[in-house]
Each structure stands twice: as C-alpha cells, then as structure tokens.
User: Fold histidine kinase from Methylobacterium phyllostachyos.
Amino acid sequence: AEEALRQSQKMEAVGQLTGGLAHDFNNLLAGISGSLELMQTRMQQGRLTDVDRYMTAAQGAAKRAAALTHRLLAFSRRQTLDPKPTNVNRLAADMQELIQRTVGPAILIEVVGTMGVWPALVDPSQLENALLNLCINARDAMPDGGRIIIETANKWMDDRAARQHDMPEGQYLSLCVTDTGTGMTPEVIARVFEPFFTTKPIGEGTGLGLSMIYGFAQQSGGQVLIYSEIGQGTTVCIYLPRHYGEVADDEGAALVTNLPRS
Ligand code: ADP
Assistant:
C-alpha cells in the first residue's frame, strides 16, 4: 500500500517530466519550422549564403527532439506487469488506512466489500494505484470534505449492456469509488480519459490519472465507466473480467468496514 503512495508521487513526477518534455519538444519544433521558413525566404531571394547554417540548426533541433522521445519511450517501457488472481475486497480493505491518511480527516471513507466478489487477474499494484488515484480525485472534488464509498460488486454484462459500454459480453467484477463532490459536466466527462486533460491548477493536476486507469482497465480486458451529476457527486467504476482460474485464499469473505470519524 505504501508502494501505491510512492507510485502516485512518481506519477506526479512523470506528469511534470512529460509536461516539461512536451514543452521542450514544442520549442524544438518551433526552432525547426523557424529555420525552414528562413531557408525558404533566402532561397526565394536567391541568397544561398545562410541556407547551410539554417539547415544545420534544423537538423540539430530534430536530433534533440528524437532524443527526447526516446527518453520518454524508455521511461514508459520500464513498467512491468505481474498479473495474478486478486481479491479486490481484500485489496480495498488493505488500502483503506493509506487512503484515509492521504485524503485527510475531513473525508469519511466507507469500504463495502460485496460477499463472494469474483477474483480478477490483474497486477495488484496497478489496481492499488488506480484505487488511490480515484480517491485523490474524489478528495479534490470535495474541498470542504464529504464521503467516499469504495464498493465492489459482481456484474453480468449482457449483450446489450456490453455493446453500449464497448466491452465484451460476460462476467465482470467492479470496483467503484463514489464521492459527494462537485460532479462533472458532460464536456469534462467526454475528455477525462485524454492524457494530460485536467481542470486543476498547474502543479496540482497532471491529467494522467484517469487516462492511466483507462489504459490499465483496457489492458486487463475491462472498462472504466463514469456516472456523475453536477452538485451531487461522481462514481467511477473499474470493470474487470472475472478470473476463472484457481484462487489462493478466502475469496468469499465479506468486508464492511467503517472508519470512525476522527
Ligand atoms: P487530474 O486529477 O490530475 O486532473 P485525472 O485524469 O485523474 O487528472 O482527471 C481529469 C479531470 O477529471 C480532473 O481534472 C477533473 O476535472 C475530472 N475529475 C476526475 N475525477 C473527478 C471526480 N471524482 N469528481 C469531479 N471531477 C473529477
């Protein structure tokens, strides 16, 4: 669980890193197109003296831009996945204390672990990161405090529901985070999975949380669905396909825990 907090801090750093890279990349592109423009003017004027210099400048900028994207790719490849059958009830219960410490005492957290929730085949640390990120988003939507409900459930997606939500028909378990916060406009909902989309002030939001959660769910054969009402709150649900293989431990245990208001 502590690892999840480190991950979330790392993501903040990644956001700053990639934001910085995008900025540098843009500068290099501006340099390249500026050089090209100057080259064109000189050629139209028939003055070829400086053309070679501009060409060298453009080439240098293009090489530095390529080096930048290589750094980004190397970074993104570093994350290795280790999927295993995971009891989402236990994962949520184990995370509760860390989440409470992260969101602060003004928010009451309730974990509702549905009895007999199906196992999922996922990398548990990725799911921990996803859960923590959903709760941080929930906190950010409740500046004056409120409630977070973390709930697990089993769900059969029939043909119609599956098609509607762009996922294969079948059995899924869901991990939903509900808050009593500001809610989202349809315009925001339409864009939340875009990398770097954020409505938060610079330095506070990276716009990477939901896009990474979406990527994780898609990789795992699942989906992320959002239900939100302005002024009422938001529910974000991660759906993961049921895992039918063997499961190591007490799968059926039900957990309903409440932290005291303190
Ligand atoms: P970030 O949190 O860094 O902005 P995310 O991808 O996690 O990046 O979220 C993108 C945007 O979606 C947020 O800036 C916010 O506008 C909106 N959002 C996400 N979760 C919630 C929520 N629980 N309540 C209200 N708005 C939300």
Observations:
- The chain is about 50% helix and 20% strand.
- Helices lie at 2-45, 51-77, 88-103, 124-140, 159-164, 186-191, 209-219.
- The chain has a mean pLDDT of 87.
- The CA atoms of residues 166 and 256 lie 31 Å apart.
